[in-house]
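Reference record
================
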Amino acid sequence: MSVSSVLIVGGGITGSVLALALAQRGVRADLAEITPQWRGTGHGITVQGNLLAALGKVGVLDEVLRRGVPFNLLRMRQADGTLIAELPTPRTGGDRLPATLGALRSDIQEVLCDRVYAAGVRVSLGLSVRAIATGEGQAHVEFTDGSTGRYDLVVGADGIRSTVRAMLGITTAPRPSGMSIWRVVADRPAEMDCAELYYGGPRYKAGYSPISADKCYAYILDTDGRLGDFGDQPAWQLMYERSDGYGGTWGKVRDTIGPDSNVSHTRIEWLLVDDPWYRGRAIVIGDAAHACPPLIAQGAAMCAEDAVVLAELVTTDLPVRQALRAFMARRLPRVELVVRNSMQLVRWEMGLEPHTDADVAETMSSTLGFLAAAEA
């Protein structure tokens, strides 16, 4: 094998999937997670089939499916709820898997955390890296607690604000997309059976997905800004006010938003690091190398695919440098398509370029169709 010991910096979906994939192949994987309590965020996530396929490869698919709601359709509606189109979602994970799953991100992370511990991965919480020195032989790491270690490979899976990326001398930085997003976990109306998108309202777009028998994840894509830029009211009240004008099922969800609602607001940024993502025996993957607005719901899928493919290639007989070069050849074209097309949708929805509803539907469908047909 190219490597027998790997340090993973970051314990989100990317790092967790990588840890499991490496452990399956007999690699000693250490995982350093900066937060003292290891858990995912509580908002919802729309999971495409190719993420489900990646989760299947590391043995957690069945448990994740039990915690979410599968569906195979996407409906597009006017702001008042009038139906525009109903589109079958391409099965990016193959015909045996649901096209899409609505779930809580925290539920997926909980499943991954449990399996990572069970796989014997050494997990260190409240710890990150301070310095990396990488050469032809091994990478030398200094940790934030003053300890050190040597590894055959160091992987930065530490998100869009990656410290590992900066340590490798990669200067690409996140950029504003021009949008922000309001998210809420709310009661699920009885008629909600799949993901739906609402266009033509007071904001750029509204949408939702069912995530359990009685809960849903709903969101509004809004103008860019930090939470305080929208006013000094609580987040739930700001989301309630800014979603005024959406009817149909979204209007029913809005009526339930109140002081006890789980509401979050986040600026949407994007990132695409030019080839290569590695320096010597250290590499960044997932959101540390590429991040896209959630308009095609492929961000987490691209991250999990990175992890599975990297584990596959660094456990072949290829030398490390060749394995990382092969990884880039497989991953960059696929990731670049998702990021570029996601940003195209952003420009259309912000009114920066002319478009039709057919342009939006075709771009979403063709992107997912490509991902379904091409090798991850």
The chain has two domains: 5-69+105-174+270-373, 176-268. The radius of gyration is 20 Å. The mean pLDDT is 95.
